[in-house]
Amino acid sequence: MATLWPPICGFNGFKRLIRRPLIMSATDAMVVLQERMVNLVNQLSMPVIETSLVIGRWTNKASHHLSQVAQENGETLPSLLSEPWPLEVEVMESDVEFDLEKALSITDRDRMDILDTLIRVSIDETKMPLSDALLVLRSWERLVRMQLSQAVGPGQLFSPTEIPEDF
Known about the structure:
- This protein has 167 residues and is mainly alpha-helical.
- The longest helix is centred in the middle third of the chain and has 25 residues, at 48-72.
- It is built from nine helices and no strands.
- The chain has one domain (26-157).
């Protein structure tokens, strides 16, 4: 069977197939990024705090870069890209105090690196415009900000990110 694979498929080896960039529309690329992120976050039962840190890092980098490009061209970014989307929830008050630095120190860096890599590779592989990637990331940012706003203690920061069915 191994000897039939290359002649049937017309290429030499499986590695070239995997490394070939995906050619797709911007909408399809956004869907691919969204699906990959949903699957990974669900599969790893990624805590809200970890998802938030990765998404925050990407939204900051992307919006900063796009703002620079816009400024160099005498333009401004629309608020849809330049600012976090508004929340439609009531913030929960809590009397519980906890050390944020301690919470950050116990995050799983490997899990965060995996999500970070998945985002980077998906954007590169699909040749997605950075503005489209930022739109996908802004929706994630809004999702995790909503969940963080409902946390009343440190334990809830480490609950798995809840992704709605229609997300």
